[in-house]
Amino acid sequence: MAIPQVTHDMNGQQVIVYTVPQSIMDAAQGGFVYLHVVWFLRRQMLGTTGQWIGEWAGYAPTPSDAILKRQGDARLRALDRWTQQVQRQITPYGAAWPTVASAWNIDTYEACPQGGAVCLDVTRFGWPVGDHVWHRWDDVRQALDWPDSSGHRFIEIDLRSLRVVAQQHSHRPVRDAVPGQKVFDITGTMFEHAWGGIHGRFALMENGLWGFDPDNTALASGRPLVLPSERKVLTEARIDLSLIGVLPQRDVIRV
Amino acid sequence: MSGIGGPDSKDLTKWNGTAVASPDTAGFPKVTIKAGTGTGELSLSSGTVTVGTNNDKTGYSLTAGSYSVRASNSQRTSTSLSGAASTTWTISSVTTTRAQCAHNGAEAGTDTDTVSSRFITGNTLTNATTVTVSRNSATGTVIIQSEVLEFY
Question: I want to staple B134 with a disulfide (CB 3.0 to 4.6 A). Which of A138, A141, A237, B86 is the partner?
């Protein structure tokens, strides 16, 4: 789980951030260091290759001076061995070291055979724990990758007006950060086909069902804000009840 | 010093006041392991050694610098502003010191001005997880496409 922290933006508006603050890194006790690691399957399993297994962040024993004094490739090799020793005692069910946050796909973990995973130190990215969930490991090239296929599409809705505030595409999760607005992952839904053209609001239709009311604005170029093909998808899309479930009933708009 | 079978050889028949058990194999003393889970003990079950679950799934581990990554990470976003002067939305967390936010297009409705830069007065990476854009007094709806790039 990522660690949400409330702060304010430059306009004084309250927002939530999920980056790892320096204070958490500095909270490591003597002899320990902040570490964020992620595990991936090395080979094809469960129908996919390089699939994410889990992530852990916490305080691990600091590498010995003998390791830290080394240089170049020798240093990397020694650090690799240190990481191997440290991660050996971290599982979804507990860790030998103080845990800050962790996220796991238990099914993938259990299906992974002994020696079937690779563990990467991703501390340098500074991303929240769980952000690598759609990434892939290329075991041949020893590369951590976020290919196009790993991208997800989102929409963000203002919970008062039910209008779509923004549409996002990212290779990492987008978590709620602006109070009064909620982010939805629309990957794999009908809405994904209209991504980029989802302008409008969610509304309770005359038939009593939830639907989408596309914006009717025309742009200066003459092109409609919502293209006919997008409008068809949006108006015919079956609204996921889990999507609508969080919307406040008092702000329902009847059209 | 004497050889085996010599005057100094010993043939133990008792140990600590109790007869020594007959060995299963000649020459190998019969020993009963002290069962338990403490120091110097072995966990036994029904005459077999109970092997603990091996949770080490990892074949190898790599630190930063031992593996490669893409040089950048990008996020594409878009919004439409109808009347409001500015709006803020959410992105995946970035490290602001190595991230850049840029708009790559804008178009206004009911306004004949086609120069997008005149519509947008601000496009800012507000903090690690939000972007804020603001618009000028262009009438109607303004669509703004924004991209957040993070480099390594």
Answer: B86
pLDDT for B54: 47
Q: Do A146 and A135 form a contact (C-beta atoms < 8 A)?
A: yes
| Domain boundary, last residue among A87, A122, A147 | A147
Q: Which of A170, A176, A185 to mutate to test the interface with B (most CBs of B within 10 A)?
A: A170
Q: Where are the beta strands (DSSP E) in chain B?
A: 14-15, 18-19, 44-45, 48-49, 58-62, 68-69, 72-82, 86-90, 99-108, 120-127, 130-135, 141-151
- Count how many domains chain A has: 2
Among A96, A81, A175, A193, CA closest to A128 = A175
> In chain B, which among 51-90 make CB contacts under 8 A with chain A?
54-70, 73, 75-80, 82, 87-90
Residues A126 and A184 in one domain: no
Average model confidence (pLDDT) across chain A = 84
Chain B residue with minimum CA distance to A176:
B90
Residue A72: is its pLDDT beyond 60? yes
Task: Name, of A122-136, B120-134, B137-151, the range with top average pLDDT.
Answer: A122-136
A195 lies in which domain range? 151-251
Integer Cα distance of A196 and B136 in angstroms: 22
Chain B: give the shortest CA distance to residue A208, in Å: 27
Contact assignment for B61 to A119 by CB distance below 8 Å: yes
Helix (H) or strand (E) holding A54, with range, is: strand A52-61
Same domain, A156 and A139: no
Q: Are residues A23 and A11 in the same domain?
A: yes
- For A176-207, what is each residue's pLDDT tens digit? 889 889 898 888 888 888 898 898 888 877 77
- Say whether both A30 and A134 belong to one domain: yes
In this structure, are A63 and A169 located in the same domain? no
Q: Are B127 and A2 an interchain contact pair (Cβ–Cβ within 8 Å)?
A: no
pTM above 0.80, yes or no: no
How far A169 CA sits from the closest chain B CA (Å)? 5
* Domain end point (choices A147, A180, A208): A147
Condensed to tens digits (0 to 9), the pLDDT of residues A175-184 reads 988 988 989 8
CB contact under 8 A, A174 and B55: no
Contact B93 A19 (CB under 8 A): yes
B104 touches chain A (CB under 8 A): no
Same-domain pairing of A41 and A137:
yes
Q: A218 vs B109: CB contact, 8 Å cut-off?
A: yes
